[in-house]
Write a structure and sequence with these properties.
Shape: elongated
Strand content: 15-25%
Number of helices: 9
Oligomer: single chain
Structural class: alpha+beta
Order of helices and strands: HHHHEEHEEEHEEHHEEEH
Strand order of the largest sheet: 2-1-5-4-3
CATH superfamily of one domain: PAS domain
CATH topology of one domain: Beta-Lactamase
Number of strands: 10
CATH architecture of one domain: 2-Layer Sandwich
Radius of gyration: 37 Å
C-alpha cells in the first residue's frame, strides 16, 4: 500500500523544506526522542561518577595515610612490648639471684652467677658489691673491676638508692669497657635486716637492638631508633654515629620539626609525626611509643620515608580509578 505524496512545482521548494518533517514523519527523523534521552542520561551519569570520584579522592588519601600510620604504630608497639618483656625478665632473674646469695660469703657469689650468665643471654656482667661499696666478685672475671670503690670515684648514687630504699633501681646505659653501652640493674641484698651489699647486672644494649630493632623493618623501607628520657640515642638503625649522643643540638636544631617529636617522646607520649631528614633529603613519618622498665622510661620509634605511605595511597588511587572506569564502561554499554 502506497502513501500519496504531493508533487510541488519549483516555486514551492521552500515550502517543502519548511514542512518536510510533517510531510514525511516516519522516514526523516535524525535524532529520535528516546535515543536523545538515553544519551543525555548517560552523559549525566558519567559526570556524576567522575565528580564523586574526584571529591572522594582526598578522603581516600587520608584513610590510606591513617592506615599506614596505624601500621607503623602497631609495629612500634610490638617492639616496645618485646623490649619491656626482655628487660623485666633480666631484672627478675637478678632479684632472684640476690635472694639466693643473701646468706653466702660475698666472695663465693661468683659461682652462682655463671649459670644465669650463660642460660640467659644479654648480660654483659654480673657483679657483687659489698656493703662498703667495693666490687668483690663477678662474672666474667675479665669484665669485672674487682676492687673498684664506688665512693672513691664518686659513683655511689645508684648504690645508695638501692640500699636506702631497699628496692631495685635501674640506671640509664653507660659505656662499657669492651665497647657499646649497657644498662645497669642494682638489686640490694639483705639478710635478716642486715645490708650485705648489691647485685649489679649490666645488660648489653646491643642485645636489645639486634633482637628487637635491627631487623624489624625490611632494608630500604625505614628504620627504628630508641632514646632515653633525656633524648640521648640508645640505638639508631640509620645513624649509628648518633648512639650515645643527644639528638637535639647535635643532629637537629632545637626548633626543627624532629626536635618537636623528640620532646613528645621524652614526655613519655605515644603518637605519630613528620620531619625532614637533612641527611637523606627525605620527609619521614615517625611512629613512637614509650618503653617502661621499672623506674626508667625510654621511647622506641619507627621512621619511614613519606614515599612509603605515598606508594600505598597511589595503589588505592589506582584501584579507585579502575572502579570508576568500570562503572563508566557499564553505563556506556
Amino acid at each position: 500500500m502506497f502513501m500519496m505524496v504531493p508533487i510541488f512545482e519549483d516555486g514551492d521548494y521552500q515550502y517543502f523544506i519548511k514542512h518536510r518533517y510533517r510531510l514525511f514523519p516516519r522516514s526523516i527523523d535524525p535524532m529520535p526522542r528516546k535515543k536523545f534521552t538515553i544519551v543525555t542520561v548517560t552523559v549525566l551519569l558519567i559526570v556524576v561518577v567522575a565528580y564523586l570520584g574526584h571529591i572522594t579522592n582526598q578522603e581516600v588519601q587520608d584513610l590510606a595515610q591513617q592506615q599506614f600510620n596505624e601500621q607503623q604504630l602497631l609495629l612500634t608497639r610490638q617492639s616496645a612490648a618485646a623490649i619491656e618483656s626482655f628487660l623485666e625478665e633480666k631484672t627478675v632473674l637478678t632479684e632472684v639471684l640476690a635472694s639466693d646469695v643473701s646468706d653466702e660469703s660475698p666472695k663465693d657469689t661468683a659461682r652462682r652467677f655463671i649459670p644465669i650468665y650463660y642460660k640467659s643471654t644479654g648480660f654483659y656482667s654480673i657483679e657483687f658489691i659489698n656493703s662498703t661499696g667495693v666490687v668483690v666478685s663477678g662474672y666474667p672475671a675479665e669484665d669485672t673491676p674487682i676492687g673498684l670503690d664506688l665512693y672513691a670515684i664518686n659513683r655511689s648514687q645508684a648504690f645508695d638508692h638501692a640500699r636506702d630504699r631497699r628496692e631495685t633501681h635501674i640506671t640509664d646505659p653507660v659505656p662499657l669497657f669492651g665497647g657499646g653501652f649497657g644498662s645497669v640493674v642494682w638489686v640490694p641484698v639483705y639478710s635478716g635486716g642486715e645490708f650485705k651489699g648489691v647485685i649489679l647486672a649490666i645488660i648489653r644494649m646491643s642485645t636489645l637492638s639486634d633482637r628487637f630493632l635491627a631487623d624489624a623493618i625490611p632494608e630500604g623501607h625505614g628504620y627504628m631508633y630508641m632514646i632515653d628520657g633525656s633524648g640521648r640515642s640508645l640505638y639508631d638503625g640509620a645513624h649509628e654515629e648518633m648512639i650515645g649522643e643527644q639528638y637535639i643540638g647535635s643532629f637537629f636544631t632545637n626548633t626543627s620539626s624532629y626536635a618537636g617529636i623528640l620532646r613528645e617522646q621524652m614526655q613519655e607520649k605515644e603518637g605519630t609525626g613528620y620531619y625532614f631528614d637533612k641527611l637523606t633529603g627525605e620527609r619521614q613519618i615517625v611512629a613512637y611509643t614509650p618503653v617502661i622498665w621499672r623506674n626508667r622510661v625510654w621511647s622506641v620509634a619507627t621512621s619511614a620515608p613519606l614515599q612509603e605511605a605515598e606508594a600505598l595511597i597511589h595503589s588505592v588511587y589506582r584501584k579507585q580509578i579502575l572502579f570508576i572506569a568500570i562503572v563508566v564502561t557499564i553505563i556506556l554499554v
